[in-house]
Design goal:
The complex is a heterodimer. By secondary structure, chain A is of the alpha+beta class. Chain A is built from 13 helices and 9 strands. In chain A, a hairpin with a 5-residue loop joins strand 6 and strand 7 (270-279). In chain A, helix 1 packs parallel to helix 4 (55-80) and helix 2 runs antiparallel to helix 4. The radius of gyration of chain A is 35 Å and the shape is elongated. Chain B is an alpha+beta fold. Chain B is elongated and about 125 Å long. Chain B starts with a strand and ends in a 5-residue tail after the last strand. The chains are: A alpha+beta, B alpha+beta. Chains A and B meet through helix 4, helix 6, strand 1, strand 4 and strand 5 of A and helix 2, helix 6, helix 9, helix 11 and helix 12 of B.
Chain lengths: 356, 655
């Protein structure tokens, strides 16, 4: 009995040796007959000799031999179909390499998603922790903690979507939040104090997500848009570091030729505050429709975090400084892909999405 | 705001050229939006000071002239202001609310109403203000020049020759200069006489008391109104005048004095005016508070070292009073700056005039963190998106708001939805609670362009208690949408190595009121079902994030051969696949490696009211070689069991 098993093993090794040498279809056919031929095939003969064994032995050996037979058959079949075979030998038709490919099926990522992920990767590589935060936010985190005076224009009923339903949500830190003062966040800056009150500096965070503004939609305005906010809090963060960070971002996004310029701007939650322009890539700063002949595109707002924001987060006065920058990345997507109408992003027409 | 270039020349002796102004003002002060010709001899400059809600001083020609002087280092020529009238009879002025009206200067004057002088008419015209008559024009001119909104009343229309500054009574009405009648309430500040209202303070004058060409005597008002009150009133009556938009920003009470002195001089010169009475109700004199700035803080916040002498020069060019002290400086802001309170404000002024563009970049540095505290659920979604795109599903982004009709189309109700108080329109009134309604709408629209669609969205949904992230997947036009969808979900779970169980649960939105619910132990992963012949699944992203495993055991490869077994099992229509599969798996034990349902057949060849499951099984043991006979015996006992339980038969065999 054991001799037969050994035979089978030896046979197997022998077969593979011979298979490696066999190339042409005729060689493979000869090989097949040698092992699997009905009269004289080595494997066939081994199988036939099984009748000489008792039941117990048969039950053990038979499957192994059957498996070997299947294996040999499969191996030969496979080799006869490999492309190594030259056409000259087989006499088959020569291939037309100009025929179109059969494109593999795959879905598409949404362009907002693509741009967002790219931006977040960039910040991640600079050591920023990544967040999205809630879309329905409380007035405290969206406005009050960010130094918006009680009657500031931005809090207007015209700009902000207010929530009519009273929401009794659990608040972080045991902060008491008036259930009647919820709203749809108007900027991703809502995460500044949310994160600051949970962490001791040094803190580097980037927030990307949906924001909402009560604004009628047209080709350049949407009520639902996407913003990215990056901020850093530490002992001695300065305007110069803010400047470097902004330059880096736009250089990465738009190439090392991209120029960045800061000029005075006003936002309640930063002081000093800046508007950030980038050189117009469309006309190379010569002046065009896109940049309204100025050679510059307004891309972001930025500044040094206002001490009142630190106070709202519970940080000791004067201990930390920080900067914050915010940009709308829908604008970036529109510039990059030459998309004429902002509404296309949330329309999600399948023909539009198939481009990405 | 519009400015006339030639008008500015009056206040800056060496006014720089237009393009220099355009370039440098934006970099150091306020954004110049554009410049155009005005006639043959002038240009109009448009500046964007809308967002400068903290700088009322930028809303006038002298205010901008000051900025230009500071930025270019040239001298400012502020208009000559003759002293206030002295030894005059008092005009009767009563101020009922000092908070709302910190200062009220009233001047009674004789006037000769006539056309304005050329230069005034030209300048008003350049900035788009209509010329009416010399008195009205001068009030507008001074506002555009000094930044103090003024108003002139026809004194003969003022009963009792006195001014009362009070809140309106509820329901009190006033016809204003734009010919409309406004109904007022007690939150609104009024200028009145002893009988009736005369003007909505800081917003607009009344028609009845306005200056006409018949006017011979006026009461000139130069006041100071509290910003928030004016803003609220302006919104409530729906009018936003040049006056109101200036008051809103919080003008300095000192400005009233500058404004009135200038107006009196102009009226005397161009309206043959004579002051006959004067009052300045100014109970609490405004005091600027000095701000302390240390050298260390300036260096720390800006990151730059600006020479102290230059710091002083820059601040003084803005008319600050600067005292050098041991640690740095004590800076007292000029009368017109209401926004400089903290050291950061002073740093901003220094850096902007110095030129933030001059500061060199400094690389961000800090300690590295081995494990940044990301919002894990959010970063996990990037993986999900890539996986789904690889499975031929396309990502959509859809609105967060829904309306009653959209909800109804998806079998949902507005109940339980969070409502927006001021939606853009009725169909955007609610925050979405599920991704279903918008995805259904999207698929229906996109079906016009593609017969087969597979889409997914990862987005936030909200209800009164919480906000959470969901993954929604929708499939249509694939031939067997439910199975396509379930295949995607199963493939996703497999890739994340999440094991799950499925059970049928009720859900009225879906066909037959049923969905398949997938869960892992007690944790619900998501639901799958059919709605309007479209397959939909919605999963909880937090569940997927929590349950996904990165480490798992790779099962050993068995050295023993695998044995296939194909079965076609005929069952009555009502029997579910899960019922059959459960029996097969239970009876199959550890050696049953794979159960694949590859077809469900109905029709010719099998009895009516039945269906045939075509199943492929694979047996493989880790300990021994299995025999075909044993498999066949196993099959027989399986069929016995299935026959007993479900009246199942093997296709091709007799019952």
């Amino acid at each position: 009995m054991s001799i037969k098993i050994l035979d089978a093993k030896g046979l197997r090794e022998q077969f593979y040796k011979e298979l490696a040498v066999a190339q042409s279809p005729s060689e493979l056919e000869i090989l097949r007959i040698r092992y699997l031929g009905r009269k004289q095939g080595s494997v066939t003969m081994l199988l036939r000799s099984l009748k000489d064994f008792d039941d117990r032995e048969k039950r053990i050996i038979a499957p192994a031999l059957q498996a070997l037979r299947a294996e040999v058959e499969e191996a030969i079949k496979k080799k006869s179909h490999t492309p190594k075979q030259t056409t000259a030998l087989s006499g088959a038709r020569p291939i037309d390499v100009t025929v179109p490919g059969i494109v593999p099926v795959a879905g598409h990522r949404h362009p907002i998603s693509i741009v967002r992920d790219e931006l977040l990767q960039l910040f991640r590589s600079m050591g920023f922790a990544v967040f999205e935060g809630p879309e329905m936010e409380h007035d405290f985190y969206n406005f009050e903690a960010l130094n918006f005076p009680p009657q500031h224009p931005a809090r207007d009923i015209q700009d902000t979507f207010f929530v009519a339903t009273a929401l009794r949500r659990a608040s972080p830190h045991g902060r008491k939040l008036d259930p009647k003062k919820w709203l749809m966040r108007t900027h991703t800056s809502n995460m500044q104090v949310r994160l600051m009150e949970q962490h001791t500096p040094p803190l580097r965070a980037v927030v990307a997500g949906r924001c909402f503004r009560n604004e009628a939609t047209d080709a350049r305005h949407e009520h639902t848009f996407y913003q990215l906010e990056g901020f850093v809090v530490d002992r001695d963060v300065s305007v110069r570091q803010l400047s470097w960070t902004l330059h880096e971002i736009f250089r990465q996004l738009f190439g090392s030729d991209a120029k960045v310029r800061l000029r005075p701007g006003y936002f309640p939650f930063v002081e000093p505050g800046y508007e950030v322009d980038m050189s117009c890539a469309f006309c190379n700063q010569k002046g065009c429709n896109v940049c309204k002949q100025t050679g510059w595109l307004e891309m972001a707002g930025a500044g040094m975090i206002h001490p009142n924001v630190f106070a709202a987060a519970g940080y000791p006065k004067g201990k930390y400084t920080g900067f914050a920058l915010g940009l709308g990345f829908v604008r970036i997507a529109m510039l990059r892909y030459n998309i004429p109408d902002i509404r296309m992003f949330l329309e999600s027409d399948i023909r539009f999405l198939e481009n990405f | 705001m519009l400015l006339s270039y030639s008008w500015l020349k009056e206040y800056v002796s060496r006014l720089p050229a237009l393009d220099a102004i355009m370039e440098r003002l934006s970099l150091h002060s306020v954004e110049v939006e554009g410049v155009r010709h005005h006639g043959t001899a002038d240009h109009v400059i448009a500046i964007d000071n809308k967002t400068m809600t903290h700088r009322p001083d930028l809303f006038s020609h002298t205010g901008i002239a000051r900025e230009i002087a500071a930025v270019f280092g040239v001298a400012l020529r502020y208009p000559k202001l003759p002293p206030l009238p002295v030894d005059m009879p008092k005009l009767r002025v009563t101020v009922a609310d000092r908070q709302a009206c910190p200062r009220y200067i009233g001047v009674a004057m004789d006037v000769v109403v006539g056309p304005s002088p050329d230069f005034i008419r030209k300048r008003l015209h350049a900035v788009g203000v209509k010329s009416i008559n010399n008195v009205v024009d001068i009030t507008n001119y001074v506002m555009l020049e000094i930044g103090e909104p003024l108003h002139a009343f026809d004194a003969d229309k003022v009963a009792g020759n006195q001014i009362v500054v009070r809140h309106a009574r509820r329901g009190e009405r006033l016809k204003i200069l734009d010919h409309t009648v406004k109904t007022l309430d007690s939150s609104m500040l009024l200028i009145a006489d002893n009988k009736k209202s005369l003007a909505i303070a800081g917003v607009m004058g009344g028609e009845g008391s306005g200056v006409t060409d018949k006017t011979e005597r006026i009461i000139l008002e130069a006041a100071n109104f509290e910003a928030i009150g004016i803003r609220k009133t302006s919104q409530a009556v729906g009018i936003r005048t040049e006056s109101a938009l200036r008051w809103e920003k919080g003008i300095s009470p000192v400005c009233a004095e500058h404004g009135v002195r200038r107006a009196i001089a102009l009226l005397q010169q161009y309206a043959a005016s004579r002051v006959t009475a004067f009052t300045d109700v100014y109970p609490k004199r405004f005091q600027q508070k000095p701000v302390a700035l240390s050298r260390e803080f300036l260096a720390r916040l800006s990151g730059a070292s600006i020479p102290p002498r230059q710091v002083v020069a820059l601040l003084e060019s803005l008319e600050c009073d600067v005292k050098t002290v041991s640690r740095g400086w004590r800076v007292t802001p000029p009368w017109f700056r209401m926004d400089l309170h903290i050291p950061e404000d002073i740093v901003e002024e220094i850096v902007r005039l110095y030129g933030v563009q001059k500061l060199s970049e400094q690389q961000l540095s800090g300690t590295l963190e081995a494990a940044p505290r990301h919002e894990e659920e959010f970063t996990f979604t990037f993986q999900l998106r890539d996986m789904l795109a690889a499975m031929d599903v396309t990502e959509v982004e859809l609105y967060s708001f829904v309306g009653k009709e959209l909800l109804a189309a998806a079998g949902e109700d507005v109940r339980g939805h969070v409502e927006i108080a001021n939606p853009l329109s009725e169909d955007l009134r609610y925050a979405r609670r599920s991704l279903l309604p918008r995805m259904l709408e999207n698929v229906k629209k996109n079906s016009a362009f593609r017969s087969s669609l597979k889409i997914f969205e990862i987005g936030h949904v909200v209800d009164a208690r919480t906000e959470e992230r969901r993954l929604g997947i929708m499939v249509t036009g694939t031939g067997d949408d439910y199975r396509s969808l379930r295949g995607i979900v199963e493939a996703l779970l497999a890739k994340l190595h999440i094991s799950s169980n499925a059970s049928v649960t009720p859900d009225t939105r879906f066909e037959n009121g049923r969905v398949l619910q997938m869960h892992h132990g007690r944790e619900s992963i998501g639901i799958l079902g059919m709605i309007h012949n479209i397959a939909f699944a919605e999963c909880s992203v937090v569940a997927l994030t929590k349950l996904a495993t990165r480490a798992f055991t790779v099962p050993p490869l068995s050295p023993y051969p695998a044995l296939p077994l194909d079965l076609s099992i005929i069952v009555p229509e009502h029997v579910t696949w899960q019922q059959i599969e459960n029996v097969i798996r239970r009876k199959g034990g550890n050696d049953l490696q794979d159960v694949v349902l590859f077809d469900i057949y109905r029709g010719v060849g099998i009895p009516e009211g039945t269906k045939s499951f075509a199943i492929h099984l694979v047996f493989q043991s880790h300990t021994e070689t299995l025999a075909m006979e044993d498999i066949e015996k196993w099959r027989d006992t399986l069929m016995q069991k299935l026959h007993t339980k479900f009246r199942a038969t093997l296709r091709g065999q007799k019952e």
